[in-house]
Design brief:
This protein has 226 residues and is an alpha+beta fold. The chain has a four-stranded mixed sheet with strand order 2-1-3-4, with helices on one face. Strand 3 and strand 4 form a beta hairpin. Helix 1 packs parallel to helix 3 and helix 1 packs across helix 9. It starts with a strand and ends in a 9-residue tail after the last helix. 33% of the residues are buried.
Length: 226
């Protein structure tokens, strides 16, 4: 059975959405990143980058959420747009832009040390995250889905991050992206989405962002490179 290494963060949740939508049997394997489980030797054999998610599909290892979505879509033939050029363009837009900028926006808004001045970094990542969502909102104007006329892995990839827009950009941020919000709302009411979100609740994850968690999540805070 496919093993799915995960926690409750955006990237694993979008893979959980695909697994639930496709009805694929899988074994969820908890990786508690606040406890540093991503750095164990066994997990580093699965993903040398020490991130979640990853899958082990009968000995075929795939890591990075968007690579997993593409792999599973091609394997099953499900949720795969026929326009491959448009599929790859928007999937990579989410992978290289939406995800990284969203992650940094969250970091500098919520987790960067409060005793340091992060105004420049905070503004940069807020600006770039907002810019990416404005592009997405414009693309979705007059379209129901990101690629073609059917629900696909690109919508799943976007949903993983976009459902957390208020956490990244403020409580009123969704008002700036009505088309993105419409898509997020449509996906979020799907039964598979509810199951994907609830998956983490079947396990116990460390909740406290204490010194141990910060040391495991933000190793740059204790290691100076330049």
């Amino acid at each position: 059975m496919l093993k799915f290494y995960f926690n409750g963060s955006p990237n694993p949740t979008k893979v959980a959405l695909f697994l639930e939508e496709a009805g694929l049997p899988y074994e969820p394997v908890k990786i508690d990143t606040r406890k540093g489980e991503q750095f164990t030797p066994d997990y580093l054999k699965i993903n040398p980058n020490a991130k979640v998610p990853a899958i082990d599909d009968g000995g075929t290892i795939v890591f990075d959420s968007n690579a997993i979505l593409l792999y599973l879509a091609e394997k099953t033939g499900k949720f795969l747009p026929t326009n491959r050029a448009e599929l790859l363009s928007w999937l990579m837009f989410v992978a290289s832009g939406v995800g990284p900028y969203s992650g940094q926006a969250v970091h500098f808004k919520h987790f960067a040390p409060k005793d340091q001045n992060h105004d420049y970094a905070h503004n940069r990542y807020q600006y770039e995250t907002d810019r990416h969502y404005k592009i997405l909102d414009g693309h979705l104007d007059g379209r129901r889905y990101m690629v073609g006329d059917a629900y696909s892995i690109v919508d799943m990839a976007l949903w993983g991050w976009a459902r957390m827009v208020p956490f990244k950009l403020g409580d009123d941020a969704f008002a700036r992206y009505p088309n993105v919000k419409r898509l997020v709302d449509e996906i979020s009411v799907r039964p598979a989405a509810a199951r994907a979100i609830a998956l983490k609740d079947k396990f116990t994850f460390k909740a406290e962002m204490d010194d141990e968690a910060r040391a495991n999540m933000f190793r740059h805070m204790t290691t100076k490179v330049a």
